[in-house]
Amino acid sequence: MIKLTPILLILLYAAAMWFFSVWRMRAELNAKSSPLTHPRLVPMLERLGRAMDLPPIRAHVYEIAPVNGLAAPDGRIFLTRGFLDRLDKGEVTEAELASVIAHELGHVAHGHTRRRMVDFAGQNVIRVVLAGTLGRILPGIGGWIANLAAAAVAARLSRQDEFEADAFASALMVKAGLGTGPQKSLFRKLEGLAGTRAATPAWLLSHPKTEARIAAIETLESRWGLR
């Protein structure tokens, strides 16, 4: 038990940090969001709801400029004001934003937020154990290698989540009669929409490459007899 104490302390610390992060995110979203009532998107929310035999999907607007969508730990779905501004400018379509909402619903349906809590704790264990071990073998760079390894694990798990959410969104978009075309066309626009072509936006770094995401959707289309 004594040997396990440091790991248990790491897990408890990771859990505390996770819950603090969730609390802070909830407070931020509550302060800077409102229900999504954009007249061009309300019909999309209704179509997605009907496709799941549910009332219209409820979503919210997160009042920040960057282009993004997110699923909060409490299951709420958000589109940023930046995304809605791009809709009003004609740079994205209603169906493309419906695919973002469908994707975030996929994260909720698969329980990715809860799973990330477990993963976050595991990554901290990996980081601390490797840093302690490698620090003795490779003084000065052992900690750096440990952080790199933990980040690689986190990125791999995040990419897995994105593929699962993409597949959910594809199925929902097809059932809603919107097809996968809007989903794929938005992927091709994302880096440009995020405001830079010279470098990948930070929030895309942990996501799969655009080509891989589109290829995965087209594999599903073939499986479903849509190609």
Overall mean confidence score, pLDDT: 81
Helix content: 55-70%
Low-confidence stretches: 196-205
* Main sheet specs: 4 strands, mixed
Structural class: mainly alpha
Count of distinct strands: 4
Strand order of the largest sheet: 1-2-4-3
Beta-strand portion reads 5-15%
Give the radius of gyration.
Answer: 20 Å
Query: Helical region count?
Result: 8
Q: Determine the N-to-C terminus distance.
A: 57 Å
GO molecular function: metal ion binding; metalloendopeptidase activity
Protein name: Putative metalloprotease
Keywords: Hydrolase, Metal-binding, Metalloprotease, Protease, Zinc
InterPro entries: Mito/Outer_Membr_Metalloprot (IPR051156), Peptidase_M48 (IPR001915)
Description:
It is built from eight helices and four strands. It is mainly alpha-helical and 227 residues long. It has one domain. The chain has a four-stranded mixed beta sheet with strand order 1-2-4-3.
Short description:
With about 230 residues, the chain is mainly alpha-helical.
List keywords for this structure.
227 residues, mainly alpha, 4-stranded mixed β-sheet
Record the SSE blueprint.
Blueprint (H helix, E strand, L loop, with lengths): L4 H27 L1 E3 L6 H10 L8 E3 L6 E3 L5 E4 H8 L5 H16 L2 H26 L4 H34 L5 H13 L16 H14 L4
Helix pairs in contact: 1-5, 4-6, 4-7, 5-6, 6-8
